[in-house]
Amino acid sequence: MEAVQHGRRGRRRRAREDSEASASEPRTTLMNCFSPVPFYSDTDIDAIHANALRILQETGIRILHDKARAMLVEHGASVDADDHLVRFPRELVEQAMASAPSEFDAYTTEEHEPVRFGGRSAVFAPVGGAPYASDLEGGKRPGTLEDYTNFVKLVQHFDVLHVQSAMTEPQDVPIRFRHLETMHAQLTLSDKLPWVFCRGHGQVMDGFEMVRIARGLSEEEFREKVYIWGVINTNSPRVLDSLMVQGLIDFAEWGQMMVITPFTLSGAMAPVTIPGALSQQHAEFLAALTIHQLVRPGAPVVYGAFTSNVDMRSGAPAFGTPEYVRAAMGSGQLARKVGVPWRSSGSCTSNCVDAQAAYETQMALWGAMLGGANLLLHAAGWLEGGLTASFEKLIVDVEMLQQMAELFQPQKVTDEDLAFDAIASVEPGGHYFGEDHTLARYDTAFYTPVLSDWSNFGQWSENGEKTATERANEIYRSILDTFEPVALAADRRTALDAFVARRKEEGGAEPDG
Amino acid sequence: MEAVQHGRRGRRRRAREDSEASASEPRTTLMNCFSPVPFYSDTDIDAIHANALRILQETGIRILHDKARAMLVEHGASVDADDHLVRFPRELVEQAMASAPSEFDAYTTEEHEPVRFGGRSAVFAPVGGAPYASDLEGGKRPGTLEDYTNFVKLVQHFDVLHVQSAMTEPQDVPIRFRHLETMHAQLTLSDKLPWVFCRGHGQVMDGFEMVRIARGLSEEEFREKVYIWGVINTNSPRVLDSLMVQGLIDFAEWGQMMVITPFTLSGAMAPVTIPGALSQQHAEFLAALTIHQLVRPGAPVVYGAFTSNVDMRSGAPAFGTPEYVRAAMGSGQLARKVGVPWRSSGSCTSNCVDAQAAYETQMALWGAMLGGANLLLHAAGWLEGGLTASFEKLIVDVEMLQQMAELFQPQKVTDEDLAFDAIASVEPGGHYFGEDHTLARYDTAFYTPVLSDWSNFGQWSENGEKTATERANEIYRSILDTFEPVALAADRRTALDAFVARRKEEGGAEPDG
Q: In A, which residues are within 8 Å of B442 by CB distance?
């Protein structure tokens, strides 16, 4: 299947690869050619920032982690002993803002350029943490290790997906072993940046050690650069629980990439107004950032934003809405005010891979890209408000992401592009099919889709009148059928297997902080 | 059905309607809050413009209309008598650019504010001229007058569709009567700006007279303001045929709104490079503009742009591609260089109303909106490269357009929006559902979708696991079931019916220029 091979990592040859603009770019980093579009005025962004600082100073954030609270007090915060509410002095927050890096690189294997986070870079990550998986044949079901493994393969396959993620929960694996199995799959099937859940110190440490084994790194080398990433969510409104704070501390201590994401649903866990929800998001982020930067100033961190709205009639979350786009663009402005990379999300509410799933996801995608997102989590495969990781949806989303990536390529118009001679040589009413100018660009002129069917109605009917979703099913299966894992040195593979076996024997790691 | 009533013209109440920003806006004009995003550098746009002027001067455009050629020669153009190739002096073109208005209003009935074209305004028009119609029950079939009439009703229903268009061809009506029937449907079922095809002087004059009857206008009043709109296409590359030139002349003489749209498919009827295709588009537009402004300097005109690319393997056109977005944004820049409103298009290649149809259409929509389009033709209902007008697609597109319209509403953050007191009053880990701040905004806080289903998977399954396309079918049928035509004064209605009867008796008007 030609369409499938097009997306194959390392075999994909884009039209602009030979131009100066992109040839110098590392393969794993996309640069967004659009300047971030401001949605709110600078005055309004300043007001939201000031509001967040006031929330931190006057109402405080509940921090459910003794060591973190003690550290904050040591640095000038006040704590209410009864309810663990920490009030943050403005200077302490601003100190954290100052020490957090604006850009950094993440490293995978020797063969690949690092992945850049920050500036104009745009990194696409697949759906993370969906409890269910689905495809057309199997329908919706609890995620399994087989599902997770298949997602790892698909993510590895497509160049446009730059890093691995949590995709679906392998619910057939006990939770104390789950991190071992998912990390093993990531490191043996893929050479992209791996991911670990912040489900307690033990699981995070296991994850770090497995990455060190697979990449052949000493503890010291590992501490110096980013080799793995993770996310913590605040428990909105205004709570940071112990698992999340422990994740902050572990990732900061080891210098690994931490995305801090408040989950501020406007109208439910955050105010019903978007500026109010953004204020709370910003305050919760800044609280976590302050802890993070106190542990290790300069540790790599990303401003996670996931403000959306709810259906006011049911309280259910909605994604890819106009308010979502507004909140995303405002979040980008707030992240740039802090001076750290910004993470947004692809998302939708739809329960199946239909037109709604596509238009909601693309609304979210444009909000992120116009806002200048540096990391787009849930960019491929997210369905049903994030409850399901869909194999067909991943292919649909990859098509949208590849189109966006193509659109990002900066254009510089040359005389050859202007084509005066070609225009002069074609008769009025004629066509350009046979022109040298056309033939010389036959293979490279236009983006070639992985999923879109451009055949005419007659051909499409003859081919079975398949929807994009049905074709996506065939494509994902075809990729899995021919997938070849990346080569991992035999000694590292053996060590990795042995580590997993030993840790399982030891009982794994419960997510108990 | 609540969702249906939401979109009902005159009954729709948007969240921001009571705010100062939008209350002062006329109902029929949307203002795009995003500044146009430049895609090409100013230098590159200047180079494309200069290239177009060179094409006009050196290679020329074939003008298949004796009177127009004579007029051009009279004003300094040179003509090759053998092949009717007209070469345009730069000064003549620049004179046309200078006299064309940058903004103008179009008028409908006394009850409604005029529709503004130009500046930040964004006018949405449905699909135009599809030979086929389709819906889930009937499938794809040649368009009929019943289909056309049903589309007129749907367009009238939704506020977000600002003007009428050609929707589908009523192939069951002889072509010499077709303009009479379609105009009659527009004027008796709708009070939105009507549309007529440029299929010869006779049809255009009939259309103009019917509008005068329906709106109660003298010939003199009609000439003073815009009351109807039309489109001409160039026969790319570099030909303007007699019907198209006659349309230019008729619309200019009567001061009605003319959209001049080259149909420059990159790789087929235009160069395979987007800057080359844009150069040809720009040259063809400027040639037609020059004729148009010579007929009546200052006549209202819109820069139509429809550059897309073809599938190089089959030569078939593709829409909503990255190249399409690039061409759209570049076209917006070129239209602003000329200083006239810009028309772009919603479009897709998909053969059915699936995820592909949605993502292609939304790509086109964002290209138009970011580029600052003043008129978006084919914004609702376009399917299968424009060959089919789909009833379900119209509903899907209306949802996307309504979301976009909501996103356009400019936001000014107030202290109330910042919600500090609400944030302070909700306990950490609590929720905002019962807060006064929430309840006061319960009905107006968020956009309410017309099509999107935000119910959870269980509810969605219980409701029959309907896709967006299946729900769109129910919605469009429900609107038609309850549609009430606008009131047209009895004497005007009688005069309109009599005019149609008389013209039919006289044999209608063949499209013979």
A: 272, 312
